[in-house]
Protein 1
Amino acid sequence: MNQHIRTIAILGAGAVGSYLVMGLSDKYKENLWVIADGERKDRLAKNGLNINDKVYSLHVKTPAEAHGVDLLFVCTKYTQLRDSLPDIETITGEHTMVVSLLNGVDSEELIGRRIGMEHMIYSLIRIASHRIGNSIHFSLPKGYNGIYIGIPNQPASQDPRLAAIAEIFADTPVTLHLSDDILLDMWDKFGLNVSRNLPQAILGVGIGVYDDSIYADAIMRRMRHEVVLVANAKGIPLTDEFKAAKWLPSQRYSTLQDLDAHRHTEIDMFSGALIRMGKEVGVECPYNEMTYNLIKALEEKNDGKFDY
C-alpha cells in the first residue's frame, strides 16, 4: 500500500467534503480532486463550493479519471453509500487508501466488502456545520473535535499509513487525531449521535432541551444505554459516560436539519443499524425501535403521505 500521498480525492461534496476542500485546497491544489460526473461535474467545476462565504474552485474528476488515487475520502450521505459503491470500486487502485468519514459504525465494512478491507482506514469526524443560503458554514475545530483515524486493535504508531495521512494535514487548518482505540472512539460518537441527535429531531428543538427537560434527558440516557449494551456485547468497552464538550443550546444536529429541509434522514445508519446489530448479539433496543419508527413517520409526513 502506498505510504506517500501525492493525490487525494473526495467523494461527496456536502459539509464533510467541504471541510476537507477548505482545509486541503491551498496545500494540494490541482492534486485535490472532487469526484462527480455528468451535469453535477459540470456544475461543480463551474461554480465551485461556497464555504464560510468564500468560493473555492474545484478540480473535478469522474470516478474513472480518479482511478488509482493515493487517498480517497468517502463523504457521501449514508443513504447514498450503497449506490456509490461502484464508483468507489472504480476509483480504488491497487495502492489506494480509503477513509470513510460517514457517521455510524458500519460503513468501513460495507465499503471493504466491495473493494477489500486492506484498503480501509477506520475513521470518524467531529465537526458542527450549518447551511446559510448556498454557503456551508462551520468553525474550525480544535482539541476534542476534528478527524480521527486508526486501525482496529492496533496502536496508531504501528501503521505507517496513518503517519502518511497525518502528514497531509500538517500545516493545514484541519485537526487530526491518531487513535489507539478507533473502534471505541467510533462507538462513542455513534452513541452520541443516537442519543442526542435523534430525540431532538423528533421534538424539533435545539440540544439545550437535554439541560432544560428531565424527560428529554431521560430519553437521551436510555438511548445511549442501548448503544452501550450492544457495544459491550460486541466486546467494545463503551460506557454510559458522555465526554465533555461545548454546545450551543440552539444547535440542531444533522437529523433535525434533514427533517427541517424535508430530506430523508440517516436514521437507518443510527437506530436502524443499532437494532440490526442488537438482534445479532441478542440485545433488545426498544427506545431505538420507537425512535426509528417515529422518524420514519416524520419522513413520510414530509413526503406528503399524510397531512391532516
Protein 2
Amino acid sequence: MSFSSKIISNYQPKRLAVKLNTKGEQFVKQGHPWVFSNSITKINDEARSGDLVIIFSKNKNRVIGLGLYDAQSPIRIKMLHSGTAKVEINGVFFQKKIEEAYAKRTKLLKTNTNSYRLLFGENDGFPGLIVDVYSSVLVVKIYSEIWLPYLESIISSLQQITEVKTVVIRLSRSLENSKSHQLKNGEVVYGRLENEVVQFVEHGVNFSANVIKGHKTGYFLDHRANRKQVGEWSKNKTVLDVFSYAGGFSVHALANEASEVTSLDISKQALEIAVQNGKLNNYLGKHKTIAGDAFEEMKKLIKAKMTFDVVVIDPPSFAKQASEIELAKKKYAQLAELGEKLTGRNGLLVLASCSSRVVAQAFFDINNQELLRSSRKFELVLKTGHDVDHPIGFPEGAYLKCGYYRFVD
C-alpha cells in the first residue's frame, strides 16, 4: 500500500521477561487485558512503551501471557495473548486478529449500513486502539504509544481487509503531546480525503461525520441499534431527543415519519450538524432545536406543560472515575424523573447510560425506583446493551445500557 512515507517510529521493541504477584497472575490466567503496575514484581528497568512483555508464571517459570509495555499508564501491560500456547507477535498475528474482528461484523454489513466499529480496543484484542469505518474512510484512533512500532503493519492489514480508499489517524490528547512520533491528529496516511465531512448510511438512514474535527472518530456508532428501534416506534409521533449531539435518534425518527422532533443539546454546533444530518434524508415532519443545559431546559419544558410521545435521554458518561459513581446515580435518577414528566399519555421513555462504572443492574434499578414514584403505570418493554460491532471481551468492556419504558395511562 502507498502508506505515508513518514516514519512513524524508529524504535525497535525489545522483549521483556516479567513476573507478577499472585493477584496479577490470576487476572492474566483469566484472560483479563490489563496488568496494573502494582502487580509487577520483576521487570527490566529500561522498559519502554511498545516493548513486548513475556509474562512468566511465578512457580513453574512457563509463559502464561504476552502483552505490550506502556510506560505512560498505570495499566502498565496491555495484554495481547493469554495462555500457554506458543504465539509470535508480528504482522501475521495482528492481521489474523483484524480478520476475526471483521468476521464478527459481517451480519451488520449485510444490512443497509456502511459505518461500523471494526476494532473495539481491548474487546477485540487491541488495547488502546479504536478503528471506525465510515463508508470508504477508515479512522484509526490511537490512545497509547504502545502501538507506534506496529502501526504501519496494522494499517496495511486494515486497508486490505476493509478495502477502504482512505485512512485517517486521530490521536488522543496525550499522543498529540508525545515526542515519540511525527504524526499529526487528523493526518491522512493512506489515499485522499476529498472532504473532512464524510457521508455514510446507518440502517438506510443518511448521516455525516467530520472525521478530522468530530468527537472521538467523528461520530458515536454504539447506539446504532437503539436509534433504529426508536425510529421504528416514532411514526406519526412527537419526539424529544435529549443530549442529541449530532441528532442520531432525531434523524432516525424524522426518516421514519415522526410528525415533530425536538433535538436538545448544550452545543449549538452539534445541533447545526443534527439539522444538516436530518436534511440528508427525505422527511415531512418538523425538526426543532433547543440549545442549553439539558436539566434546565427539561425543567422549562415541564413548566410549560409540554409532553412528547417519545422521549429519549442519552447523556454522556457521568462517572469517569470511581469517586463520581454516587453523583452519577443521582443524575440518572433526576433524568428518569424529568423524563417521566415529559412523556405523554401512553408514551415511550427511553433511558440510556454509557457510564461503565454504573453497572447495568444499578442503572435499571434507579430507573425503576424513580418511575414507580410517579404513580403512573408503566412496563419495561425492552432492555438493550451493545450492538454487534461493540463486542464485550471483559467485564469493564461493558458500558452501554438502554431501557424502553412504555406508560400505560
